[in-house]
Every structure is written in structure tokens, then in C-alpha cells.
Amino acid sequence: MLRFLLRRSLGAIVILLIISAVTFFLFYAIPRNPALLACGKTCTPDQLAIVEANLGIDKPVPVQYWEYMVGIFTGRDYPIGHCPAPCLGYSFTDNRPVLETILDRLPTTLSLAVGGAVVFLVVGLAMGMLAAWRRGTLLDKSLSSASLVLGSMQIYFLGPLALALLVHNNQVFSQPKYEPFTEDPTAWFGGLLLPWLVLATIFTANYTRMSRATLIEQLREDHVRTAKAKGMSRSTVFFRYAWRGSLIPIVTIFGIDLGSLFGGAMITEFTFNLPGLGRLAVDSVTKSNLPMLMGVMLFAATMIVLFNILVDACYALIDPRVRLA
Amino acid sequence: MSSDTQVAAELVGRSPGQLMWRRFRRDRVGVVSGCVVLFFFAVGLLAPVISWLYGKDPQTRYGQIEPGLLNEFGYPVKPNGGIDGEFWFGLEPFMGRDVLTQLVYGIRTSLFIALAVTVLATLTAIVLGITAGYLGGKADFLISRFIDLLMAFPNQLFFVAFLPIVATLFVDPREETPTYVRVVSIIVVLWVLGWMTLGRILRGATLALREREFVEAAKVSGASPWRIIRKELLPNVVSPMLVQATYMLPNFVTTAAALSFLGVGLVEPTPDWGRMFAIGAEVYRADLTYMFFPGVAMVVFVVAFNLLGDSVRDAFDPKTNR
């Protein structure tokens, strides 16, 4: 296990290095003058000079990248101030270290992702199991059709719709907002409930479809048939053999989904105006805040790569045949 | 595919394509969803004809020209978003444009972008997937690692972050970005991260096909690699390609719409399906009806495409069970 984690972590670091390099070079090398892009359409020469100095773009791009990467481990000094150890650069819209802002926004994104994931995993798996258990019945068909239609919904349609019908017209939910969990757990829950449900609706549908399909596939497996033939009860066969076998694809997709959600659920955060990483990324794009975007991109990529490793480690827990070496 | 070729009851020789078509025709859900999909493409293609027959265009601000259509706050006077015999889908708040023609032209824009991305992504997947699978060795290793790398990119973030960058490739950031540059940039970013799934599938399929007897036979008889790829491999990967493409296209439509919703996609005055949701999200408190038609149209479109994809898959491979 240890060797596996070590090997995969090395691979992950390589991938992250490449991603950071690609992103960095695309951000800073392709635009004819990145400072101009960062400075926006109403840029005076004075502002431009400040931005250029802060970006350090008088040096060649590989040197800039090297300084950026060194800065992550040792910290870095900018004309506007010192940026402590894991330094992802300075944001030039509010002159704060990028990492500080990311850490500020992180709790919102984590709350949204974890809460949403609990809802879609529990509801999705339950509905999928129900549909597979009662395969071919009316219940199965209605669950499958519902998941098809709900899965084809888009958050940017469902979100405003839910806001209008459930918050604005009927006050079933309170206006979505983010309250830190540590300050007021009830307000935290109430403010995020609707975003969780909307976010989860789309995912739930996918999980229902997938868990139903893999369960049905598993129920046809030889070892499941043998267990049935031995006279084991239907529920034992279902849960101990078929369900466990169906977990591998579910865990795979769940890891991917959770990893990308931790990098910011952009559309959900935008729709409900929640100050998370996704919202931060969108704002940084409209303000052309390259260092901030670079930081969010690196963070999100780290999450995706990290969850990929976790998923592979989970395989060993689920399937005793898998040996990690 | 060749092993699937069953002998029909009356012992008529049929190509796999014909068999697929016969199976597809018998699938009622597939035919209906296929018709819905065709309807959307027809709407997109015939948008100018529709707006000519209907007598409106997507740019005229009817609500601002004709008094009595919008109230003092800029919302339609008539209930339900101003739907009546003249404006079938209602009026856009503030701008006062006709929603039906906006939607029809928006569908046209979105479908054009999605179609272009689908074609580009499929071609890329064919070239790289088949190269990796057929050559094996170093080429396979490089292409597979490349796919892994692209898969690790946070894709929504990538789209949002790189759209402006791609646009600056074509124009100076101080100048106004022309519409065609925006369209090309959207196509490029979606394309870059859109081909990997199909690429992996095609690589796997080619890898398996390479060892088959008919490919060996072609090799032994002296066929060039190009001929083997064209005559032996490509016809056998048509089915995963078609199936994957039908799943890809609605994805590109919704992703491009999401970009417009987030405010980084197409801008006024180009009619766009996704931007209608951005406007809808601004006005939902006073005028929820505005979002109704674009929203329902998109759900119908995506459902129809997914059902069509399932039917195409079943028609190609009747052994898969659902």
C-alpha cells in the first residue's frame, strides 16, 4: 500500500508539474502582452508599468515559471510585498496573496461539494438499487424515466427555476447564502440546502442510471447465480454479492465527480451567488486576474489528481482481488 | 462487427449497416427521438425561413419601438411574459425582442458550434486513437499519457480560463473581439478537451482489432498500413464512433450554453441559447416565463439526444441489455 501511494504520488506530482507549466505558458506566453490582458481595456501606461513589475514579465517566460515554482516552496518577494511559503503569486486586483483568497473561498466550495455529494450519493444509489431490485416493474420504469429527464436538466435552468418557485414565490427555502459552519450550523444548513438539492439533482440522475445498470450486470454474474442456487436469501445475494461488485464503477465516478466539485462547482456557485472557488474563477476571468486563475487552476487540478489516487486506493478495499503494489 | 453479422430469416445477405438500420427502424423510442433531433437541426438550419414566415427578426426591439408592450419597469405588459398571437413565445424584458426568433437563432448558433466541435473532436480521436492502437509501443505510450494529462485538467475551469486567452491569439485585447473570433475560441477550447473519451475507446478497439485474423491476413497479403486502417480498421470502429458522437454533441451544446451563462461565451447581439439563461436568471423574479421556452427546449433536446444515443448503441450491438 505504501509503495503504491508513493508511486502514484510521484506520478501525480509529474502530472501537476506539467499542468502548471502548460497553464503558465499559455497564460503568460501566448498573449502578446499579458500585462495588457491583465490590465484590461482601460489601461493607462502607469498602471501597465505597475502590473508588469508585479508580474515580473521583464524576464523570459521559463525564468518566470521557475521563479513561480520556487515561490511555491520557499515564498517570494514582490515589489508590493512578501508572499509567504506556499506562494501562488499576488492577485493584482486586490493586492493580496492568491493563496489567502483561495483559502477564504475554500470552505464554501467544500461545504457545497460535501453536502451535495452526500445527497446525490445516498439518493442516487438508493434509487438505482430500488430500480434494479424491482427491475421491469412500473417503479423501475418511472425511476429510469425520471432520472433521464432530471439528468438532462441544466443547473442554469433548474437553479433560477427553483429560486423563483421555492424561494421567491413560496418561501419554502430561505435565500441561498453561505454562513460558516463554525459560526451558525443551522444557518449554514438552511442557506446551502437548496444549492445542495439543485446540484445533486443532476448528479443523482446519473448515479441512479449507473448503479441500476451495474447492479443488473452484476446480478447476471456466475458467482451471484451460484449464490442464488445455493439457496441464499434474495437480499443477502443482492447486498453481499451484487451490490459490492457494483461498487467499483460507482467509486470511480464518485471520485472523479468529488475531485472536480472540490475545485469549484462553477455554475452552481454562480447561480446561487455563493462565494466559492468556482465563483472566484469566473470573477478572475472577467477581471483577467491571471495569477488568481493560475492558483485556482492548480488547486483544482491537485484535487482531481488526489482523488484519482484515492479512488485507486479504494479499489483494494472494495475488491479483495486487487493488490496494490 | 463481422462476427455479429447474423443470417436473416429469409437468407438475404445484408451489410452490418443495413442490419443496424433495420434494427433501428423497429425501435420506436429511437425513431421518435431521432425525429426530435432532426427537428432541432431543421429549426437551426431554417431559422431565417422561420423568422421570415413568422414575420419577426431576432434583433428588432419591438418592445421599445411599439408602445404598450413593455411597462415602465421594462417587463412585458401582458401576463405570462407577453405571450399572445403576435409574440408566440413572449417578449424579452428590457430589450423587448421577440423570444421565438431569439430562441430559433440561438439554437442555430449553438448547434453550429456543437456540430463543429463534434466533427473536430471525432477526427482528432480517430487520428490519435487509431495511431496509438495500431502503432503501439512508444506512440501508444505518448498518446495515452497525453490523454491522461488532458483528463486531469479541471475542464470547466479550463474552458472559462482559456477562452479569453484563445481570443487574444486572434485579436489585440484592447480591441473589441469580433463575433467570429469568439465562436472560433469556443470551438477551440471545447475541442481541446472534448476528444479524449472517444480517443481512448478507439485506441482500445484498434488494439483488439489489430490481433484479429482479417487484419493479419491483410498484412500478410501486403496491404499498406494506410489501407489496413482505411479498409479493415475504420469500418469496424464506426459504431463506437457514432454512439459516442451522439453523446458528445448535446454535451457540447450544454457546455457552450454554460459558458454563455457564466458570461464568458458569446455576447450581444449574437443570439445564443445559453445567454437566454443568463437573462432568465436576472429576470426570474418578475418574469419567469422568459426562461420557460429555452429551458424546456434544451431539456427536450438533451433527452432526445440521449435516447437516440442509446438506440443507436442498441441497434449496432443488440447484445447489450438495458
TrEMBL record, chain A:
Matches recorded under PROSITE patterns: ABC_TM1
GO biological process: transmembrane transport
Keyword field contains Membrane: yes
Transmembrane feature ranges: 12-30, 110-133, 145-167, 187-207, 247-272, 292-318
Any single Pfam family the record assigns to this protein: BPD_transp_1
Keyword Isomerase: no
Keywords: Cell membrane, Membrane, Transmembrane, Transmembrane helix, Transport
Residues annotated as domain ABC transmembrane type-1: 106-315
Topology within the bilayer: Multi-pass membrane protein
Gene Ontology cellular-component annotations: plasma membrane
Subcellular location as annotated: Cell membrane
Homology family: Belongs to the binding-protein-dependent transport system permease family.
Annotated protein name in UniProt: Peptide/nickel transport system permease protein
Automatic annotation (TrEMBL), chain B:
Ranges annotated as spanning the membrane: 29-54, 111-137, 149-171, 183-202, 249-268, 288-309
InterPro entries: BP-dependent_transpt_permease (IPR050366), MetI-like (IPR000515), MetI-like_sf (IPR035906), OppC_N (IPR025966)
Family matches, as Gene3D superfamilies: MetI-like
Subcellular localization: Cell membrane
Main location group: membrane
Alphabetical keyword list: Cell membrane, Membrane, Transmembrane, Transmembrane helix, Transport
Membrane topology: Multi-pass membrane protein
SUPFAM superfamilies for this protein: MetI-like (SSF161098)
Location of the ABC transmembrane type-1 domain: 111-309
Pfam name, any one: BPD_transp_1
GO CC, alphabetical: plasma membrane
UniProt GO BP: transmembrane transport
Organism superkingdom: Bacteria
Protein family per UniProt: Belongs to the binding-protein-dependent transport system permease family.
Protein's UniProt name: Peptide/nickel transport system permease protein
Gene source species: Streptomyces zhaozhouensis
